[in-house]
């Protein structure tokens, strides 16, 4: 069996967290020591590809909420760099997405080295062998205690018997000797127990620093094992290592690439003073300064966030050059660019313009001193406080809200969500004053926080505690008021002064100050540093381009290497026939599952046949999504953001005339809830006609399906998944029955689940799937099976049959998993036979695509269900038990197989090219 490149059984670059040997194996094609090859090229034959110089921006977090690294990547892309942003995956899978022209790669990080070090710590040493001799665990200690107690009771009884046997000197001596021996054994046992318990407490207690960061915090080595191969495969000209967790990764990757003969340079971006952080344990407090000390001197350049920290780093590590200061700041160009379009913090709080509103935006931790603001609110009876925070409150925020409840001010404390980084100043601008209540901790003393610049770009005067750098900045510029740190009366007085003099203080926020505190100004020096590190030859290849600062992270990566969602619309337009939402009489919105690209197919089919209609498709994605064409992509977690929800509400309620709810998903993010039923009042009030579209497990009853079909997909489902699907489908069926809305299903079997629905057949691009290669011409036909999820297709039951026929040389079996949509299309066109599902009882999108390519398709069909809508699909009907004979019949009767292929094309042209579906939907769209 020959896997066709990336379409083999194990998709390249999509597996789980790497084992160490995988990282080692991917050092390079050449020798591990970097020895040049005989032809004089670097080991492994490395050659720079022509084009833009390459930059790898690496960070140890999930990227999504890190505005500094996102803006760094966008600024470099605008300057003409080929940028890859590498971060950490929250799952056990590699994830890829795009940020405009920036490729985003998120890698899973295993815990191999952490496990190694933990095992070493548990290994017995000389002291533990003495203190725990004969007592390997707590159970052994319990047994030893019982044995000792039994011995003591027996010896005590013997002493009693000796007492009764006589009163002479010999009896008394024997009795006292026995009592003495029992006391000695008791003392020995008690001492042994104390030693054992002491050793157990020492072993189970907090680890103590060893002075070697590799042993103290081995997660840093795990990060290198995960990130290193990805970065080295990119072979960048420059590596930008962000924060302390990436310093070893950057240093090692650059050294290994140089060993291969490349000229890679790297810089370390110190986001904070690691020696001044209150780390949660002693091992991190030792490990992070240790790794910084080992590698900072090896960096080709050092960047940091403030002049104070630059001086500290230069002095502490005797750096030859002062680190470049690049403060995190808002993009000036993006401020007010969408004024009035997005939600404001005042809107989010539900407050009128005359209510004094204080705002704090950013991380909420003990060192941020926000308890001072909450306490002060009790003395500011008309003021409200907005805390811009993550949706899930942490322990500090929970304590603040509890204290607000105790003080009777909870109704004036509003927790509002984050918005994308480029929208922050506009979001905050409706408040009156921006708060910074930092306590006196080192990192708060030595830099101007990002929120200060964000407040000023929002036009907000600052109310700040007396930490050194902030106090000096406010006193120098006059843009706010300073209060004594952690002093509530001083805070109250500063707020009162700020509110009284707000106009005067805001007037001191000059354009010159905002320019200095803009990302455009701060990043200019960083871009010059990149060019210097890369060298004049690489810098000469820079080709600046226009990239909006507002680009957001979107899923997918085009096979060509041009970062964009796979299978999405090419730059500059939508797929042919897909009319962008405009001023047409019918404006149809569809979202947001887009299962198998069906919403895209519906949009194309409808726009081709109706000139009065335009359409917009929203697709919600997650880390394992296959990306299909859509107008808008919403990464899963973003749908919970209030900003996204309100933008969707404005778009949907202000633009659509009709809405097709795909798989019962909500139209407005999760503004009203996670189900389309939650949005129906809003859609109805806006006069939008709504219809429901079901595809399969969203309405299919698992119990009924399992009782009907021996090979039902639900037999193979995990019990937890089965419970979720049963509950979800029951809710959807109940809602559909009670709603009175038009209902459509894409496969005939679902008409039994939704008796009031109509069949709106699956849509495929018949011409796009057409293949010039005739089917069944090869002596050894190619058979393709492409399960999106193996358990839903009956894959485990049919693969052994296909592999056996492959081994016998009768077919060439290709299993396609985890590859982009466009690549699947090419593989199907090159096949001879398509094997679809054996666990549902109907045919799906993949079968339609195989028929459109002119290939005989094998699948399991419940013919009764299809006859109910008057169709007889030309599909070779088989079960896992009859698959072998079905395939052999196609191999034996090649003319019959080709006849089936021709009938298949005619069938999909009749029912699945979009015309039939458009006619079915016509009544709803009038």
Task: Please explain how this structure is put together.
The chain is α/β, with parallel strands linked by helices. 43% of the residues lie in helices and 13% in strands. It is built from 37 helices and 27 strands. A nine-stranded mixed β-sheet has the order 8-7-6-5-1-2-4-3-15, with helices on both faces. Helix 10 links the parallel strand 6 and strand 7 (301-304). Helix 5 (138-165) packs antiparallel against helix 6. It is globular and about 110 Å long. The protein starts with 19 loop residues before the first helix and ends with a helix. Residues 1-46 and 557-576 have low confidence and may be disordered.
Q: Major sheet: size, sense and barrel closure?
A: 9 strands, mixed
Shape: globular
- Mean of residue pLDDT values: 85
Widest sheet, order of strands: 8-7-6-5-1-2-4-3-15
Low-pLDDT parts are: 1-46, 557-576
- What is the beta-strand fraction? 5-15%
Count of discrete alpha- or pi-helical segments spanning 4 or more residues: 37
